[in-house]
Amino acid sequence: MICFDCFNQFNGTLTRPRLSVFCSNKQLYAMLVDDQNKKCLFYGSTLQKSICNNPPHTTIEVAQRVGEELVKACGDLGIKEISSHDRNGFVSGERMQAFEIVIAKHGFLPR
């Protein structure tokens, strides 16, 4: 369960949501969060069957697919800009870099 009371210091909105990314030892999870309305607009992870379907892929390829799904969701939701990018304290590893390259190509990384 997500505790949205913890997000008061962030500034995601419906049109400019906050991108929160968590990278464990094996997986990558990404969420677009509208902090003002306390809603998750998009959730994607390397565990989702729709993203990591057959044939098996490397974790880097699946992380890229998460990025592609996020870009697609942004298009569907009419989102043109992300307010902030929260890595949850993680430095950029291979999966995080693969994910960020895909979303940066479409202009979805805040400057």
From TrEMBL:
The keyword Ribonucleoprotein applies. GO terms for cellular component: ribonucleoprotein complex; ribosome. Pfam families: Ribosomal_L18p. GO terms for molecular function: 5S rRNA binding; structural constituent of ribosome. Coiled coil: none annotated. The keyword Ribonucleoprotein applies. Gene3D superfamilies: 3.30.420.100. Keywords: Ribonucleoprotein, Ribosomal protein. One of its GO terms (biological process) is translation. PANTHER family: 39S RIBOSOMAL PROTEIN L18, MITOCHONDRIAL, RIBOSOMAL L18P_L5E FAMILY PROTEIN. Belongs to the universal ribosomal protein uL18 family. This is 50S ribosomal protein L18, chloroplastic.
